[in-house]
Amino acid sequence: MSNWTVLNQKILPIGLDIGHSCIKMIQLAHVNGSMKVLSLGRVPVTLSASMDEHETRRCIVSAIRQLLSHGQFKGRRVVSVLSGDKLRITSLRLTEAEAQQADKALRREAAQRFDLNPETDTIDYLLAGNIHEGDEVKSEFIVFGADAEAVQSHISLLEEAHLELVGIDAAPCALFRCFERGMRREEDKQRTVIFMDVGQRYTTVVFGRNGEICLAKQMPFGTGRFDEEIASKLEVSVAEAESLRLRAQRNVPMDAAMQQLITDAIVSAAEQLARELSLCMRYYTVTFRGKRVERAIVAGGGAHENILLGVLRRHLSIEVEPAEPLRGLELATGKQSEEPDRSLADLALAVGLSLKGQNTHASTEEPAEVAPEPVLEGEQA
Fold it and tell me: pTM of the entire structure?
């Protein structure tokens, strides 16, 4: 790795995405004016609902240590993200008078909606834009909330893995940051794009336009729903259903009747997600009048499912494409990642998390001492 040791180098923190089926880590760096991937890795995990907290933490810590020992990560500074079941998201509108005291008004309303304590729990927000409601102009905000216990538990988990936390981000912000860097052309800025990460249990959805987040939502839907549908149709365990789905995904030959049952099950589940996304699109077009959604980019494990992509195209009637979060980044081989590689689509959140570290102090080889960023900071890029 001596070729990375150059004078004009800024190493970013490690982006850590703790999923329910896989732990992903990536670290980026600015080297001589280019963005490069220093190291990346993933370790499959099985975090079932039946596991107690101690067993879950042990599994996660073990996976993180494995990634650190086998990768070429520099330092232990990390930016992470809360899981979908720990983060609450909502949209709130304030009148012009209320917007003058937005912080107080949003914290009060969010605390009531999320059943949080505004004094001790974490509540952050970002401005989505101004909207017309009748004859009145209001400000639309996206609000994020997490209780103090969930945040502290996440921090202690990373400390147990011997990581130095410099920031906890909200998944929609990390997802948007990953792809916003590739939409610098003026024609791209004027297009509304849906960025979505379909994980194992949760789907994160972000509507982005002109370098800003306009709408964010997390849905309790993921690739695990496909496996549940398959298990129900075939009367097998969820684990067996997942194995069959992955075989079909890789085009492994199987009985035609079983192949059709698997396809029907995935279509049935995918249509549930498509309906939810249609509602989001309707809300967006009504809220931000005259703004039209033009395409969707799918990240996460769901990007591997051609059946899902096909269902989304039919229901949403827009361009739908799998994510390429490493496109344009220089890899350790010295080559740029320019060819489509859907196998890397699940790294989108981790890339966005590492990029968040651009706003922290960085070093060349050894990390400097850095004060932690505000938790769930409502930044967009």
Answer: 0.89
